[in-house]
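In the current project phase, the collection of sequences with tokenised folds has grown. A sample record is quoted in full directly below:
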Amino acid sequence: MIEELYCCPIADLEARAEASPQPGMLVALVATRAEVQQAEANIAHQLRRLRDLSASARHPLELSDAAHLADCVRRLSDSLVARDAGVRVLTRVLQSLHRAPEARPTSTASAPPFSPPSAPNTASPTPR
């Protein structure tokens, strides 16, 4: 949606945001998008790690195995919360923004001619 709003590919927007000397809406949107992507990558990593740990776990579980599983689940949960929060923020901000309609050239023939207001009549004095 960021690309649609700015009518530009995301790579160009990222470069523009990186080159920007001051923070602004584009910088915030691109940074939040990057945070969401980082959270999604960590979710995928933690899911793979959780599968590996659970597949290789000895039965009954040893305390160290349980600690590794719990740590993995905690990290997965943290990443899910971060991703969901970032997605909510991006969605709300992008829904509140919209592209301004492009200016259409106006024909002078279709617009009524401008006539300045007439000057007040000062010929007859007003009683006091």
Q: What stands out?
A: Helices lie at 2-6, 10-19, 25-56, 63-96. The radius of gyration is 30 Å. The mean pLDDT is 82.
